[in-house]
Write a structure and sequence with these properties.
Length: about 425
């Protein structure tokens, strides 16, 4: 059996751990630069507040209903997510994080044991140790586990196990609620006569593969209880790592763009080293914002690709290749709204294939980055950083309603009153 554990209203739940005043009131979490709402509490959903409208257009409505607003506290959410995953690892050796607030788990209970009781124990332990509410769904495949968790969110106990006869459930399930079926694909399926998940489950997988894709054919098999998605290797590495952010204000100075690229490279490289990988190439890009003294969006995207002679994991070594191309991307007088970097062609650091003229990474360099990452993991991101990343960083993302980073900053630890 597969279990899918999904944290309920995760961002809001993280905020409520350390701020009890947020319980029982409508809470909104804003996107980067406090743009629009990306997460809502159940109380806010009951008010039918639109998530897509910019926050500045909704301020009066929020004040009228007493809605509590917070900037996205990614440091807090990431740390709480790691704690949830750590608790789950005590229930099964095969836990596969799917997103920041979801994880699949392979479960094989002895005969006679109750899966519902097992799910309740998962919920109880996470609620006690981490203070985050979760929903748990059980099914023989990952796709069906997604369906089970969708139902579990409405169940009183927060746990649900799909019955053997799932056809009535699938016939009530919209196509867009199937894992891997988005709105565009759902429209294509509807045109060809599929109305719900039950119709798709009744289709011939070979016909689906020829008309749509192999992935959708596997989804059909999974809806019928046949395992078609291979269990993920717990040490599978990313194929690429991207780090990009919109600036807190439009940037026109080359110095600030270079600082942003250095910062995002450092963050991406840190994640890559954690996975034990090295990058063969780098994509770097800027996005243009509106012209000066103009409200019209000029648009535009400039970028380039750099191939590395030797796969690298060091921030300084990667920046040494990136910096020379940045002046060719910069246009004086233009305003930029976003910068980003993507590391691709990731290879296993243990089996590097070097060319004849490449210099192998020294043991001293490996120890340097290992120490750097260990300090930042313990003391907080960028506690130790390259001077190239800048000190004041006026271009950084705007978060004017940020709650304390209770678990990742010594200076922001919660204090007893």
């Amino acid at each position: 059996m597969y279990a899918l554990i999904d944290c309920n209203n995760f961002y809001v739940s993280c905020e409520r751990i350390f701020d009890p005043s947020l319980h029982g009131v409508p809470v909104a979490i804003l996107s980067n630069n406090d743009g629009c709402v990306v997460a809502r509490s159940n109380e806010l959903k009951a008010l039918d507040v639109n998530m897509r409208l910019p926050y500045f257009k909704m301020k009066e409505i929020y004040a009228q209903h007493g809605i509590q607003v917070r900037s996205s506290n990614y440091e807090l959410y990431g740390d709480i997510s790691r704690r949830v995953m750590s608790v789950l690892s005590g229930f099964s050796p095969e836990v596969e994080p799917y997103s920041i607030d979801e994880a699949f788990m392979r479960v094989q209970l002895p005969p006679g044991q109750d899966y519902i009781a097992f799910g309740r124990e998962i919920r109880t332990r996470i609620a006690k140790w981490v203070k985050v509410p979760v929903s748990v769904g059980f099914a023989p495949t990952k796709t069906l586990a997604k369906v089970a968790t969708h139902i579990a969110k409405e169940a009183e106990c927060g746990v649900y196990m799909l019955p053997e006869n799932i056809r009535p459930i699938l016939e009530q399930l919209p196509l867009t609620e199937i894992w891997g079926v988005g709105k565009r694909l759902a429209r294509k399926l509807q045109v060809t006569g599929f109305r719900n998940a039950g119709d798709l489950a009744s289709a011939d997988p070979n016909r689906i593969r020829k008309k749509f894709s192999v992935c959708l054919a596997r989804t059909v098999l999974e809806l019928n209880g046949r395992l078609a998605l291979e269990p993920e290797d717990m040490e599978t590495r990313s194929q690429s790592i991207c780090c990009s952010r919109a600036f807190g204000k439009k940037v026109g100075e080359f110095e600030y763009l270079r600082e942003a690229v250095a910062t995002y490279t450092a963050w991406a490289a840190e994640k890559m080293r954690k996975e034990g990988s090295r990058a063969s190439g780098v994509n770097v890009f800027f996005e243009l914002g509106p012209e000066k003294n103009s409200t019209e969006f000029s648009g535009g995207h400039v970028g380039t690709t750099i191939m590395l002679d030797t796969p690298q994991f060091g921030t300084m070594e990667i920046l040494r290749e990136v910096y020379p191309v940045l002046p060719s991307l910069y246009q004086k007088g233009k305003l930029y709204r976003k910068a980003g970097i993507m590391l691709f062609g990731l290879t296993d650091a243990r089996v590097d294939q070097l060319n004849l003229f490449s210099r192998p990474i020294s043991e001293k360099e490996e120890r340097l980055y290992e120490t750097l990452d260990r300090i930042n993991a313990r003391m907080g991101r960028d506690k130790v950083f390259l001077l190239a990343q800048g000190i004041e960083r006026p271009w950084q993302m705007k978060r004017t309603m940020l709650s304390p980073r209770y678990t990742t900053r010594w200076s922001e630890l919660p204090r007893a009153k």
